[in-house]
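Journal club prep — side note

Before the paper discussion, L.F. wants everyone to see what a predicted structure for a comparable chain looks like in token form. Sequence:
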Amino acid sequence: MRSFSFPQLGKNPLQNGYIKLPVIGKIKVRQSREIPDGGVLKQARVVKRVSGWYVMLTVQWNVNPPQPTPHGEGIGIDVGLTSMVATSNGLLIKRPRFFVDAQRKLKLLQQRVSRKRKGSNNWLKATKKVAKLHEYVANCRKDWHRKLSHQLCDNVGMIFGEDLNLVGLSRGMLGKHCLDAYVLLKYLYKQQQQRSKFIAFHNAVDITKQLNQQRIQRNHNYKEARLMTGLLAARSN
């Protein structure tokens, strides 16, 4: 079992660096962030990872979610494979290769696991090293994308881009390369909530259909205008 939840907590369960969980009792924790004023702890989920145990707290907090409107300078971004991000102001950001660079070491560690007898102490140590490498790659990816999302949002108020089906693309041949783009979009939407940035991603197919419909409507209006002009000229004669 890698995780378990506590749907209810007692009154003030988090105090002086300790959290009080039902049945288990008090546990010393290292708090990563402060509980907002007026927030009430409702649930706790304990998760086991290779680097240790983590407690995820659910907080009930009366807050109005931001509804950002278009404001400030805007840029367009395009997520690709050669360059991670290309912006409309000429910025090109090279795509990181966290997982690809770690593949050689990962292959060696997995070969060592396959040579060990399953269930033995040496097998457990080898599998732990594989899990640590996976967690290290995931943490590097999250840290880089968090910093990149801050960099993109620092001097602009609006960001526009194409809404790609990254979940579907990740199941194909380029799956490992599409995961980075998926993480970036997730952190950009977090910037929208935390810093009131206006983030908009639209499907290119829908935009093309909309433009075609507008072009057809303009041509139809133009033909009607020419017809009305011809009728008026005929009546005047």
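L.F.'s comment for the group: The chain is about 45% helix and 25% strand. Keep this in mind when we get to the figures.
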